[in-house]
Amino acid sequence: MPAALIQHPFMSQVALADCNGEALVAAMLSFELALAEVQEARGALPAGASRRMAEQLRAHTFELDALATGVASGGNVAIPFVKQGRAALPDDLKRYWHLGATSQDVVDSALMLLLKPRLTSIDGLLQRCRAAAIALMQAHDETVMVGRTLMQQALPITFGVKVAHWALGLEQARRRLAPLVEAGLPVQFGGAVGVHSGWDDLGLDFMDALAERLGLAAPLLPWHTDRQPIHAVATALDAVAGAAEKLALDVSLLTQTEIGEVSEPGGEGMGESSSMPHKRNPVRCALIRGAARQIHGHTTVILNAVAQPLERGLGEWHAEWTPLIDSALLLEGALEQAAVLLEGLEVHPEAMRRNLEASGGAIMAEPVSRLLAPLVGQDAAKRISAEAAETARRQGLPYAEVLKTHPEVNGKVEAAALEDAAAPATYIGSSKAQVARTVTWLKNAD
């Protein structure tokens, strides 16, 4: 698979470098050595055994190609890893390597170790997005633009309130993820069938001590076929992806040539076409949406693997690994783009004003109709407001001026009242208050 060309560009390059094969081997080794340290501290291993293991194995080079080959016969990477590790130890230490553990303990704990810094990085990127969004909201809390429903012009809103909804979505998703960052991802240690066979009550003690030593959370019980921890991570990542995708979708629609209300941040080669020199494509939005769509697909794999049989999944557990790690790498990449997008978004108020006038004032037909209804009746008010808007559009005249000369309105309504009713800035409802309320909430987020 040409991953470097069609998969990796959607991911965080920093995260990708930190989650390669060597990193997984290092995480598995950390688990095994921590387990030995915990067992030695409680008298299950002879004094000095864990130190000697560490000295031997930290200097050892595990053969990744052989590990990959071993997965095909054993079903997971822990099996060939344990074999290579044992072979590298002196004879008197071999019996203490991987003592009381099972493959799932090694793989699940290693994945949690890989994910932990990724979740912290994702949280930091979300906070960066939050700060950029607050600045945009405050700068544009009175910038009036078209509000659109079913892809059509509806009524005026402000750009500030649009950004507020982007920020709200991202922050709500961040708060779903935050407990996993704060409480920590759980260690896995239960042995062959999840009951610490052969260790009796010491097993839970080992598990708790192992969690502390690795900087992971101590679960109530081993979770070999209780996949709630994986479900929680996957769905939290997917929620963030959905919020980022909403931002990218809106921005991409607003960048359309005929609308032109915002532009993505520029940069050398950003948005260029292979054949059309004039193009400035919303590439950051495309990368965000492409990553999000992949995350949504990965999430369905994990959701369908939640119920796992008996004491070890047969295929369900195995199916989780790639979607889980890839989702984190894709999301981190998407949020890197989202942060740059929000920090450098070019806003074009003049285009927003132009688009407000594109319908000849029809966007203000509702408030005009409300003004006229007490004077001419509801049906007539709707008809007059629509007729005037169409006349304004066809003749290129201001909506209020057409209304003033309409035979059924002339002399019945003060000119100032008509001008006020036809002015988009007077009909933005609670937009400004919503921005203020959202800014306060976001600033109190932590």
UniProtKB/TrEMBL annotation:
> Could you tell me the keywords of this UniProt record?
Lyase
- SUPFAM superfamilies in the record: L-aspartase-like
Q: What Gene3D superfamilies does the record point to? A: Fumarase/aspartase (C-terminal domain) (1.10.40.30), Fumarase/aspartase (Central domain) (1.20.200.10)
Keyword Lyase assigned: yes
GO terms for MF? lyase activity
Q: Where is the Adenylosuccinate lyase C-terminal domain?
A: 360-439
The entry's family comment says: Belongs to the class-II fumarase/aspartase family.
What name does the UniProt record give this protein? Adenylosuccinate lyase family protein
Q: Which organism is it from?
A: Litchfieldella rifensis
